[in-house]
Prior knowledge:
The structure is a single chain. With 154 residues, this protein is mainly α. The chain has a domain at 92-152: Zinc/RING finger domain, C3HC4 (zinc finger) (Herpes Virus-1, 2-Layer Sandwich), CATH 3.30.40. The chain is 55% helix and 6% strand. The chain has helices spanning 13-27, 30-35, 37-56, 60-78, 104-116, 142-153, and strands at 92-95, 101-103, 138-140. The chain has a three-stranded antiparallel sheet with strand order 2-1-3. It is flat, with a radius of gyration of 25 Å. It starts with 12 loop residues before the first helix and ends with a helix. The model has no long low-confidence stretch (mean pLDDT 80).
Amino acid sequence: QIKREKPENIPDLKYLVKEKFTALESKNSDSDLQKNEKYLYFKDQLKEMRKQFCHKSDNDNEAIEQIDEDIAVTQSQMNFICPITQMEMKRPVRNKVCGHTYEEDAILKIIQTRKQQKKKVRCPKIGCSHADVKGSDLVPDEALKRAIDSQNKQ
């Protein structure tokens, strides 16, 4: 429609998109969702998890607490993983500019390589917009190192 019209007659795109979306949305029904492969797979997985936790504990609150604890542990372990090496960090350094952490050797190697190419280093953490990481921005992250060490002792 836009290609056919003159530039002065450009339609209200927001309205057209909303209209189209509403039309598509009204075609979807709950029965479509009940037949959706991914939705069914997700529901089966939830049932499986519920069965597993109900066997382990008779009390639902215990099961929920266990899941919460697992999520917390998983999230803290994720923070131990270097975005460059995808391995647990041994000598984590924090970027003072954006706050992300990396394995010291890995980030310094990237900085050195890019410096030789006369290029800037983007923060390797996905979604970060910091585009000029320098060695001088990096400081050892002692707190994270202690957390990793204590996790590994357990």
